[in-house]
Specification:
Strand order of the largest sheet of chain A: 1-5-8-14-13-12-9-11-10
Shape of chain B: elongated
Helix content of chain A: 25-40%
Family (chain A): Belongs to the class-II aminoacyl-tRNA synthetase family. HisZ subfamily.
CATH superfamily of the largest domain in chain A: Bira Bifunctional Protein, Domain 2
Strand order of the largest sheet of chain B: 2-3-1-4-11-5
Radius of gyration of chain B: 19 Å
Helix content of chain B: 25-40%
Pathway (chain A): Amino-acid biosynthesis; L-histidine biosynthesis; L-histidine from 5-phospho-alpha-D-ribose 1-diphosphate: step 1/9
InterPro entries (chain A): aa-tRNA-synth_II/BPL/LPL (IPR045864), HisRS-like_core (IPR041715), HisRS/HisZ (IPR004516), HisZ (IPR004517)
Largest sheet of chain A: 9 strands, mixed
CATH superfamily of the largest domain in chain B: Periplasmic binding protein-like II
Largest interface: A-B, 22 and 19 residues
CATH architecture of the largest domain in chain B: 3-Layer(aba) Sandwich
Number of strands of chain B: 11
Oligomer: heterodimer
Binding site for L-histidine (chain A): 77-79, 107, 121, 125, 271-272
Low-confidence stretches of chain A: none
Number of domains of chain A: 2
Strand content of chain A: 15-25%
Number of strands of chain A: 19
Number of domains of chain B: 2
Number of helices of chain B: 8
Radius of gyration of chain A: 27 Å
CATH class of the largest domain in chain B: Alpha Beta
Largest sheet of chain B: 6 strands, mixed
Distance between the termini of chain A: 45 Å
CATH class of the largest domain in chain A: Alpha Beta
Keywords (chain A): Amino-acid biosynthesis, Cytoplasm, Glycosyltransferase, Histidine biosynthesis, Transferase
């Protein structure tokens, strides 16, 4: 039998599980405080559906074959099945639906020094509310979650796909040329972008706006006013006014200090329709949360309903928290470990009593080895009496010791 | 904020270090033939790491370095799809990719031919774009040997002077791609350290104009 040599998979141990549990608990509590319903989408999804709606995930998805020969994928994301199910089960266009989830997502991810084939994703999706306030609430929830787990130094970069879209709509270019431009901008390949823009038949204003777009980011007020200067049509200005209203919500909610603007987010413009954002945590060179407004997805499932949400990679957050010393310390799994040569009625009854009162205790035969990091108190049981460090003790005295831990 | 640069060891790091030194950055522990792999300038503005060229994009993508400078050929071959921004064409380290074969011997392109190369991705792209089916043999060095010993029909390799080819009885059949050194940047560093990175780009562009 070969050893397990799969890359990107690992067992999580007790302390890791406990910490993941704490983080999840806090996430779910923030989500529920906003009135979101907690859901879980199926573990398996239809490959064809993803291939059609999210073709960019095609290569990243883990495929498997059903007993009847149908190709399935292991949950590659949550948004798509959620929006699809909502369209089927809640067809009223104006119905407000707020969902939250924490689920394993089967997609590769990379951190600074970690890599995995799947990760725990937390997130929310709000359907049926097209207001800028909704966008504001989504961003605020992201910030509140990080605050709840103790990550205070964060930076939220907010942008708008509508601004870029309006700029592109006004350009006298072929679709193909726009696609090429979008591709270079999404990669922020400034070298190729500049060279390509130089070959296009554009007016000075449009050229200037396109050239600056990939690097149009920075502090809120300053960047907003620059973005206004570069606007060449009313669509771009409208996108900015809406963004200001989103900002107002965040300001009143107390997170304005974390906000920066970035108009260079150009990835997946076909998906996001308006506000887009990413949240970075101090010192980590990757985003832990990203999201935005995607108003056109639900219509493709027959219910034209606006939507806004975000997803967060909890594994990356965990890695960051671990590096920053924000995780709870390891705790021994036993508060009290009792070893015995022969067990009897007394020790078993004591164990049951202690456990009933909420203590973590167990007894084991003294022929077994037990790691000293696994317990806080160790006692030996012999003929009706407990001994700790050679001193005889009653069950009540041991319980008192546990209480004082 | 200091910026951390990963430089591709070899011609590129020598040229870039010279640029930086001539632009007023002092690296007390750096010399061209030193075996040290990590240097800091005396004002603690720059930290330089020397890494093997295919690793530059890995360092930058993972955020172990903010900025990297590496040949475009390496980026295309080894790091296509890396989540890094390409921010500047340095114009140095220019080289050309070429198809070469045995001098004077005609290669029958109508049948499936075999290519020996260190750059399988670039080679495949080129031949497929030109509607040829090819078999690729990935080699790690002394690629010129391949046609001579009958391992492949032609080779695809970087050609600078052509002297190595000539010495081994080969000739260039077709030049097909020009490369130069590129500055790449971690997407988050690009935003967080934008002014410092702009400054570094200016210094390098300035030197480029002087050359």
């Amino acid at each position: 039998m070969n050893n397990n040599t799969l890359d990107g998979v690992k067992m999580l141990h007790h302390d890791e599980m406990r910490n993941y549990d704490r983080i999840q608990g806090k996430i779910i509590s923030v989500i529920m405080n906003h009135g979101c319903k907690i859901i879980e989408t199926p573990s398996f999804e239809d490959y064809d559906v993803y291939q059609h709606f999210f073709p960019h995930l095609r290569q990243q998805m883990v495929k498997t074959i059903d007993t009847d020969g149908r190709v399935l994928v292991l949950r590659p994301d949550v948004t798509l099945p959620l929006v699809e199910t909502a369209a089927r089960e809640f067809p009223r266009q104006d119905q407000l639906l707020k969902f939250g989830y924490v689920s394993t997502v089967f997609r590769e991810y990379f951190g600074r020094s970690t890599y995995g084939k799947d990760f725990l994703q937390g997130g929310i999706e709000i359907l049926g509310d097209s207001s800028p306030e909704c966008d504001g609430e989504v961003i605020v929830m992201a910030a509140e979650i990080l605050k709840a787990v103790g990550v205070e130094t964060i930076r939220i970069d907010m942008g708008t796909a509508a601004y870029t879209q309006a700029l592109f709509d006004g350009l006298p270019l072929e679709e193909e040329q726009k696609d090429t431009l979008r591709m270079y901008m999404a990669d922020r390949n400034l070298v190729a972008c500049r060279k390509y823009i130089a070959t296009l038949p554009l007016t000075g204003d449009a050229r200037r706006a396109l050239e600056v777009l990939p690097v149009l980011f920075g502090p809120y007020a300053q960047t907003l006013s620059k973005a206004r200067d570069y606007s060449i049509n009313s669509g771009m200005l409208n996108a900015l006014s809406r963004l200001e209203r989103v900002y107002d919500y965040i300001l009143y909610a107390g997170f304005a200090g974390k906000i920066q603007l970035d108009f260079g987010f150009a990835n997946r413009l076909d998906y996001y329709t308006d506000m887009v954002f990413k949240v970075y945590v101090d010192g980590a060179l990757y985003d832990v949360i990203d999201g935005g407004r995607y108003d056109t997805l639900s219509a493709r499932f027959g219910v034209d309903r606006p939507a806004c949400g975000f997803g967060m990679n909890i594994n990356l957050l965990y890695e960051f928290m671990s590096d920053a010393g924000l995780l709870a310390d390891a705790e021994p799994s036993f508060q009290l470990a009792v070893s015995y040569t022969a067990s009897d009625q007394t020790v078993i009854r004591d164990l049951m009593n202690w456990r009933a009162r909420g203590f973590r205790v167990a007894a084991y035969p003294d022929s077994s080895f037990i790691d000293s990091r696994d317990y806080s108190i160790h006692a030996i049981y012999r003929n009706g009496t407990y001994y700790k460090d050679g001193k005889a003790m009653t069950a009540e005295e041991l319980e008192e010791l546990m209480r004082r831990l | 904020m200091a910026i951390h640069i990963a430089l591709a060891k070899g011609r590129i790091h020598k040229a870039v270090m010279k640029y930086l030194q001539e632009s007023g950055y002092e690296f007390p522990t750096y010399s061209e033939d030193s075996r040290k792999l990590i240097f800091e300038d005396s004002k603690s503005m720059l930290k330089v790491t020397l890494v093997k060229s295919p690793d530059v994009a890995v360092y930058v993508e993972r955020g172990a370095a903010d900025v990297g400078i590496v040949g475009e050929d390496v980026l295309v071959e080894e790091a296509s799809g890396a989540a890094v921004y390409e921010v500047l064409d340095l114009g140095i380290g220019r080289c050309r990719m070429a198809v070469a074969g045995i001098a004077g011997k005609k290669v029958d392109m109508t049948r499936r031919i075999t290519i020996g190369t260190k750059y399988p991705r670039i080679a495949r792209q080129y031949f497929e774009q030109n509607h040829h089916s090819v078999d690729i043999i990935k080699l790690n060095g002394s690629v010129e040997l391949a046609p001579l010993v009958g391992l492949s029909d032609v080779i695809v390799d970087i050609v600078e002077t052509g002297n190595t080819l000539k010495a081994n009885g080969l000739e260039v059949l077709q030049y097909f791609m020009d490369f130069s050194a590129r500055m790449i940047c971690n997407p988050v560093s690009f935003k967080i350290k934008y002014s410092e990175i702009q400054q570094l780009m200016k210094v390098i562009q300035q030197k480029e104009l002087e050359v």
